[in-house]
UniProtKB/TrEMBL annotation:
This is Anti-sigma regulatory factor. PANTHER family: ANTI-SIGMA-F FACTOR RSBW, ANTI-SIGMA-F FACTOR RSBW-RELATED. Keywords: Kinase, Serine/threonine-protein kinase, Transferase. GO terms for molecular function: protein serine/threonine kinase activity. Residues 38-139 form the Histidine kinase/HSP90-like ATPase domain. It comes from the Bacteria.
């Protein structure tokens, strides 16, 4: 199993570094441009949530991104030490109502679950939050 790691501070300026890290590694794994774009969008949502909610826009927190790849899956894990969050309390969005109300934001979990094959969230309050985003590798 191949593992790569990137640690950045919780600043939106670092989102481009994260995108490049995901893009480069997903490309090496043989994913299509569409799959890579979807992964980047899902990771972008997760990291933006960390910056906004876990660290309340403080640029001093660490965001740890780890990519694990084997023959069948490409998993991106995003970990932080900020405020915990329970994804089970986030209701599935009513997209038509959302659109009618011209809302912005709040679709992060929905997008992650839609764009990736598997999303797992693990939190130990006061210690860490970890979200794992997995894209299956199709056998060729």
């Amino acid at each position: 199993m191949k593992t790569k790691k990137l640690i950045v501070k919780s600043s939106t300026e670092n989102l481009s570094k994260i995108r490049d890290f995901i893009s480069e590694n997903a490309s090496k794994a043989g994913f299509s441009k569409d799959d890579i774009d979807n992964m980047i969008l899902a990771v972008d949502e997760a990291c933006t949530n960390v910056i906004k909610h876990a660290y309340k826009y403080s640029p001093d927190g660490d965001i740890i991104i780890e990519i694990k790849q084997d023959k069948s899956a490409f998993t991106i894990t995003i970990e932080d030490n900020g405020i915990s969050f329970d994804p089970d309390i986030v209701p599935s969005p009513d997209l038509q109502k959302y659109y009618r109300e011209h809302r912005v934001g709040g679709l992060g979990m929905y997008l992650m679950k839609t764009l990736m094959d598997e999303v797992k969230y693990n939190s130990v309050p006061g210690r860490f939050n970890r979200v794992s985003l997995t894209k299956k590798i199709k056998a060729t």
